Amino acid sequence: MSPTIPLAILLVILATLILFIIFPRAATKSHSNHGRGKLPPGPTPLPIIGNLHQLTTLPHRGLQSLSKKYGPIMSLRLGQVQAVVVSSPEAAELFLKTHDTAFASRPKVQASEYMSYGTKGMAFTEYGPYWRNVRKLCTLQLLSASKIESFTASRGEEVAALVESLRGAAAARELVDVSRKIADYVPYLAPLDLQGYTRRMKKVSKGIDKVLEKIIMAHEQGASEEGHHHKDFVDVLLSLVNQPMNPQDQHVYIIDRTNIKAILLDMVVAAFDTSATSIEWTLSEVLKNPRVTQNLQEEVERVTGMDKMVEERDLEKLDYLDMVVKESFRLHPVAPLLVPRESMEDITVEGYFIPKNSRIIVNTWTIGRDPNVWSENVEEFFPERFINSKIDLRGYDFRLLPFGSGRRGCPGAHLGIVTIQLVLAQLVHCFSWDLPSGVETKDIDMSEKFGLSMGRENHLLAKPTYRLNARSM
Ligand code: HEM
Would I find Oxidoreductase among this entry's keywords (predicted)? Predict the structure, then answer.
């Protein structure tokens, strides 16, 4: 290559940099709104990187401080991408309800390990007939109330296995790495025969396709890995191979192996870490607050008694448990910025112009910690704030949005809530928990680690003591 070419490129870059440094807002505007209105207010973007440097290692926190300055509808540049950050219940309602259709797509996310099948799954697929059909299929075949109900017994067995294994640790007076253990026993994948595969999948970062192939082949041969077989979601999907997903629809999709792998992978990813992490956060708060532990134990004891484990049908009577889980989601939403959306058209919201293909980020973490929404004690874990309140967490109340809302809201919210409540109730009912010697409740570290789902930075360690009457289980 001629040495003059890199020099020329360098000069062009330099000239562009200078132009951006002098006229950053003007440059941004002319690229993004084509003179059709003003963008929401926001910090001045740097050349090339835009505002990426302001996101910090915990972006929800970095965005919280920015939104305090620029308001609940804020404009940012993430590299070359125009983004809008939403940080109040009122603004969230505008984006996720009033104008939900305009913001119902997802941006194409590059190089995700979970994207190996392109956009044939659900969570990262752009809005359109394919996504609609996959969502319908999953909602009916996997996540409907009757399907969830039909797996109650298997969930119970899986939770019983968790209790049994913790009981072993209790008898040996062992310290348990709760973070690891609970992640091993999130129960609802068991009825789908995915649990074992999920553990393996986590170990083999590069072998996801192979693992999925094995799952499918095992099902095709009519036998699961454990040597028994009951009809599950994979079977349902396999029974649809080579058939149109949506015979009545205008766009007909024929289901092939890649569709099945993509949908399966999406389900595992969306369901698994989110739930394990939510249980971990909730238990951390419960252990940090002995008053809450006591209230919870008294409630479960009243409803279930000390002779047996909690049953799923007990959950609807456990009001305090419900409030504890809500409070935990308020402070620790595992998807603090939800899953990004993308605008499908130019649109004006609250007088601000939002160009097509903008990325929409809803900072639900900030909403959960806004004193104007929750009163002054926002940082305190105080489940009683939900007494006599109708605040729901499934996406109907924009003050509490751990599962998002609207067309792209989480289709697994009901299953997720049942699972978290069941596991948590069991853990506090069957065991009392001591912290490692020398550690006090105030020392329980609540630092966050940003990731696909936002978990604890450090593992939670505690020593269980079995507390039910001896012959129970
Ligand atoms: C504690 C448990 C869970 C949490 C906190 C959670 C949270 C979320 C959030 C925040 C979104 C994005 C919503 C939005 O953009 O408005 C989402 C989407 C999704 N979730 Fe969940 N989720 C959980 C459990 C589950 C379960 C159990 C399943 C299925 C078995 C599931 C499947 C999905 C799918 C497929 C999507 C994508 C939906 C779409 O794009 O159309 N999730 N979830």
Answer: yes
**Contact call for residues 403 and 416 (beta carbons, < 8 A):** yes
pLDDT tens across 301-347, in order? Answer: 999 999 999 999 999 999 999 999 999 999 999 999 999 999 999 99
Q: Is 177 helix (H, G, I), strand (E, B) or coil?
A: strand
CATH class of 129-466: mainly alpha
Cα Rg, the chain, nearest whole Å: 24
pLDDT bucket at 109, cuts 50 / 70 / 90: low
How far away, in angstroms, is 416 Cα from ligand 1 center? 9
Q: 3-state class of 194 per DSSP?
A: coil
273 lines ligand 1 (CB under 6 A): no
* β-strands 73-78, 431-434 pairing: unpaired
Instruction: Give CA separation, 335 vs 145, 276, 405, 419, in Å.
Output: 24, 13, 13, 17
Distance CA 466, CA 179 (A): 19
**Would the CB of 338 count as within 6 Å of ligand 1?**
yes
The domain limits of the chain are 4-87, 129-466
Residue whose Cα lies nearest atom 8 of ligand 1: it is 403
Binding residues for heme: 410
